[in-house]
Amino acid sequence: MATQDNLKTVREDIEAWNKHDLERHAKLLDEKHVFESDTIPAPMVGRDAGRQFMAVYLTGFPDLHLEVNQMLADGDFVVTRWTATGTHRGELMGIPPTQRKTITRGCTVAEVKHGKVTHSWVYWDTGHLLKQLGVLP
Prior knowledge:
Elements: H1 2-18, H2 22-27, E1 29-37, E2 44-45, H3 47-60, E3 65-74, E4 77-87, E5 101-113, E6 116-124, H4 126-133
Parallel strand pairs: 1-6
Antiparallel strand pairs: 1-2, 3-4, 4-5, 5-6
């Protein structure tokens, strides 16, 4: 049963991203949530950090949408393969808006305990995204 509950928690988090609901996203995170990604120089810790990370991408891509391609769960871990689409209409980490539509793919490994995401590792094709924005050749 815990595995199904963990899948439900991660699905709810994806829904929060798709509804651009920072508060719902934050409520699904543990108070000491740790977020790690190849897109940030150091782990981000806590619910406020989770809100900030989400806000950065929603500012850059106000129409951001995540499509779940696959979810696998084992114990406390849920792995989600996803495709993200959006139009670059706002600044993203110093990159001015390009108005370009983008699509990128990635994978999130989430650790879930007691109905809260305690740790997230996000891996995605940032190089492909930067090419679409015209930042990389």
